[in-house]
Amino acid sequence: MDVIRFLFRNHTQVLELTLEHLWLVGLSTGFAMLIGIPLGIAIAHWPRWNKPVLASANIIQTIPSLALFGFLLPVPWLGARADRLAILALTLYALLPIIRNTFAGIRGVDAAVVEAGRGMGLTESQLLFQVELPLAVSVILSGVRIAVVISVGLATIAAAIGAGGLGEFIFRGLAMVDNRVILAGAIPAAILALLADFGVGWLETQLRPR
Hints:
Helices cover 80% and strands 0% of the residues. By secondary structure, the protein is mainly α.
């Protein structure tokens, strides 16, 4: 009950930090999709690049988030703005599930369907946009769903470098040894993760080929 009272008493700040959190997650996931989906398509069509690309994305996932933020902090222009740094770091962390699921989705398209498209005279780009991507879209969205949930959680760490978001409450609560303040950041972040998981999951179901 103390947490609920705290949230109501500070609802303006909670809303402001929630919007900052959504902005960090939305922008980084958007960038990850712009990079990850084309990479997943590329390695599906040119398998020799499969191992280097997936290995690089896997290595990024193994780096602790605070260590990655610290590593990027001295980079010129980037380190001058905490939000830029946080968005780049979150984008890098979101790449693996998007690349991997795009690759799996494209490779999972029935070869007979692709051959039938070629037999109808479709070009490679037409095959991609009219056959492969529509059939793979639900698998790709499954990767986006994982990436969004990961980003919501990791965005709380971004507050450690001054990037804002709900992590502000968590770090403030840790400094004050106040569980109310910690939960004021953790509970909205958890709700955001659940809503994102449900929302993208619903979209994935709707777009699944029947």
